[in-house]
Structure formats: C-alpha cells, structure tokens
Amino acid sequence: MAKTIAQGFFSDPRIEEAKKLIQAALKEHKSHITGIRGPNPELKESYDQLLKRVGEYRGGALFYNYLGSGIGNGPLVELADGSVKYDFITGIGVHYMGHSHEGVINATINGAISNTVMNGHLQQNTDSARLLELFSTAACKNGAGVKNVFLSTSGAMANENAFKLILQKKFPCARFFAFEKCFAGRTLGMAWVTDKAAYRAGLPKTLDVDYIPFYDANDHKGSIDRAVAAMKKYITRFPCQHAGFCMELIQGENGALVGNKEFFEALIAVCKEHNISVFADEVQSFARTNQLFTFQYFGLDKHVDVVAIGKNSQVCATFFTDDHKPKPGLISQTFTGASSQIAAAYYVVSEMITGGYFGENGKIDRLHARFTKNLEAISKKHESKLRGPYGIGGIVGMTVFGGDEAKTKAFTMKLFENGVLSFMAGGGTTTRVRFLLPVMVTEEKHIDEVCEILEKTLMSME
Ligand SMILES: Cc1ncc(COP(=O)(O)O)c(C=O)c1O
C-alpha cells in the first residue's frame, strides 16, 4: 500500500533509535526515585524564591508549595526542591498513569515530532481521527446512542458544548436541572451551574438552574422521593421551560459522593416524560469506577443524550446522539488539543480499555478495597479524627476532625509536608479530604505506605 511521507518519517530507524535512547535515559534517571524524601537543603533557597515569584506573577500564592521538577516514577513525583512525594491527587484527577510513564512519553514524542503543536477543528491529523473512533466505539459498546464526539480543551468547555447542543435543540426552553452542590467548571456559563455561591460572586447570571437534592445512601427511598418531588415541583412552576438535566453522577468536588442507578432512573423517567435532555457530566469520574464511562457503571446507556468527559481522558470531549447534532456554526474550537496530548489520549484510553482495570475485581476495585480497608482500620482507632471513607474506585474521600474546613486544610498541608498529595472537597462543616489515584501505576504497597503516613499525620495533630 502507498505510504505518506509522514509514515516514512515516523517509522524511520533513526527516530526509533532516538526514542530508545530517551527511554534508556528515562529508565536510568527515574530509577533513583524509589520513595518519599524531604527537600534538598541546597535547593531550598532558590525553590522558595521561585515559589514567591510564581505567587506574585499569578496574582496569588499556590495552594501547595508544589513546583514539579519534571520527573517522577509511577505514583511518586519529584519537586524542584528535590523532595519526592506520593501523588494521590494527580493534578485533580488527570495523571491516571502517574509520572514519567514510558508508554505515555513514547506517545507524546510521536505527537511532538508531528508537524504542528496543536490540532484544531479546521485542521486535525489522523491521530485525532483515530481518537474519535476509539472514544465513540467505547461509549456505545452497550448500545448507547452518544456516538458523535467533539473534542475540546477543558472539562468546562466540554460542558459548555453540551449545554449549547441541548439549548439549541430545545429552543426556546432554557432552564436546566442540576444537583445541589454540583461542580461543572469555571466558565461564565458553568459558574451558574456549579452550586457554590463563592464561585460566581460578582458574575452576571448566564443560566437558570433548578437544583435537585443529590442521592443519600442512608435514605435510599426517601432521597429518590424527595428528588423526584423537587423536579416535578419545578416543572409545575416553570412549565415547558426545562431544556436539560446536568447530572454529575459522582460528585467529586463535593467530597466523593456516589449516586445510584435507581435514583438516576427515577429522575430520568421524569425528564423523558417532559422531553428534557439527559446530560452526564463525568469530567471527574471518567475511568474512576469499574467501568470506563460512569454512565456505563450506573447502566444508563440507553438514557444518556449527551456526555462530557475530561481529566483522565487527557483530551476533553462531548458525546451526543444524532438528534442533538448542532446546526453549523454552534460549536467549534481553534485548538482541540496539543498533538502530543491527542497521541497520549489515544495511548492512555487504549491502555485503560485493555489493561485489566475495569470489571468486577479489576484493578480499580482491588485498589479501592485496599484503600477502604486501611482507612476503616485507622478510623476505628481514631474515631474522633477520621470518618469515612467515602467514594468509589479511584476516587476516595474521608472526613477529618469532624469536617471542619480550617482543620482539614491544615491536615492536607501537613500531609503534603509529610510526603503525600491530597486535596480538599466540599466545604464549611462538611469538608473532606479527597484522593484521585494514579490508577495505572498504584499498587497495594503504595496505598499501605500512604495510609501509614496519613495515620502518623493524623496522630500528630489535635
Ligand atoms: C464534574 C466536573 N465537571 C467539570 C469540571 C471542569 O473541568 P476543567 O477544570 O477541566 O474545566 C470539573 C473539574 O473539576 C468537574 O469535576
């Protein structure tokens, strides 16, 4: 078969040789990263100055004193002060494959040596085409209709596109349903979906959203009845005005709260009755349950009209059914992602699909069971200091010091100092600590070590 010049270039033995050399150097250097360690005193002064400058340039200090050096080894990451930490937050749920992963680096090199830095909707390379096919096939494997895929550069943008598709289809209906305390991103539109007043303080209103209480596992039937009643009440108050229902199926920013199939189905039934589009925002939960897509985990394949993914997928995307196709002009983007990012997304999602992570007792289930067992044991010993754990699969939450926000923040800071990266979720008196694991590279022994550090940190605080 005829070959393009590019195919000749990518398979040139010199390129293969160069990649082998890079891999050999990477293997050697990352092998020095074997466990957590404190900062190198000789780097301290320059690191502190760098942090200060970064804080000044960006108009506010960083949450953690974290500036990565550019190398890591699996779940371990080296910072520019020479310290090494466990990364159990992964850039808030992005680095599924940990740090300095050989396969990912190889894929990004392939993207990096292609002709352009970026792919966009006007000009994309064949890597984008095969990524679309991979995404669409995976999303529809159980008969879902969301076979159309638009790539984008952030979770918020994937959500914006989802809202636009629904609004255009349902015009002039323009109200949305969403869950209380959901998070949907930081654009002007998504600031009015995200149910947190501080995140939209001073911003003009862009969307009308009616909030439905989220699932309460302690009151299964009661929470279904309350949510359905709330939805019906709004439909009566604003007849024929709702365009869509934005469902964050697992609430990440609100503290790793997990929904329920029956709960979602009851609400979806009301939506279908009133011609309201069903949209699953799984930007944070994609690939974190024991199924690739969260709607697949909850068995909602036949119900979803629109789905957004991001973070772990490396390139964000909006999936939609044929009847949600936009009219020309509604959605596009100059960039859909960097060429290396698109190549990495194909590699990472292919690995997810074939690597034994999903299904009952797949790697995700096993990691979750180990983490949960360890945290329960700690909680039993220090009941007043730790409650939980919560979450599912690769998203784990816990409450420390009764959920007090300031104390939880102090705990995450101390945990950081002691060598583990986590993050906060929720807020006020229901603040939690959240972990988003680098699933591909985490082993049970890493979880054990992190839990030991966590317990010591907890013990050192009053
Ligand atoms: C559920 C959900 N939707 C949307 C977003 C926004 O994604 P991004 O920060 O990539 O814009 C997030 C980010 O945390 C999220 O958790």
Write structural notes for this entry.
- The protein is of the alpha/beta class.
- The chain has three domains: 5-31; 41-93 and 360-459, Aspartate Aminotransferase, domain 1 (Alpha-Beta Complex); 111-354, Aspartate Aminotransferase, domain 2, CATH 3.40.640.
- 41% of the residues lie in helices and 18% in strands.
- It has helices spanning 5-10, 13-30, 41-58, 90-93, 102-112, 126-139, 155-170, 188-191, 220-237, 261-273, 294-297, 339-354, 363-381, 405-417, 444-459, and strands at residues 68-73, 76-79, 84-87, 118-119, 148-152, 175-179, 208-212, 242-247, 250-251, 257-258, 277-282, 306-309, 316-320, 337-338, 386-392, 395-400, 420-421, 423-425, 432-436.
- Helix 6 (126-139) packs parallel to helix 12 (339-354) and helix 9 runs parallel beside helix 10 (261-273).
- The longest helix is centred in the last third of the chain and has 19 residues, at 363-381.
- It binds pyridoxal-5'-phosphate.
- Pyridoxal-5'-phosphate (PLP) binds at residues 92, 154-156, 159, 183-185, 248, 252-253, 281, 283-284, 310.
- Pyridoxal-5'-phosphate binds at residues 92, 154-156, 159, 183-185, 248, 252-253, 281, 283-284, 310.
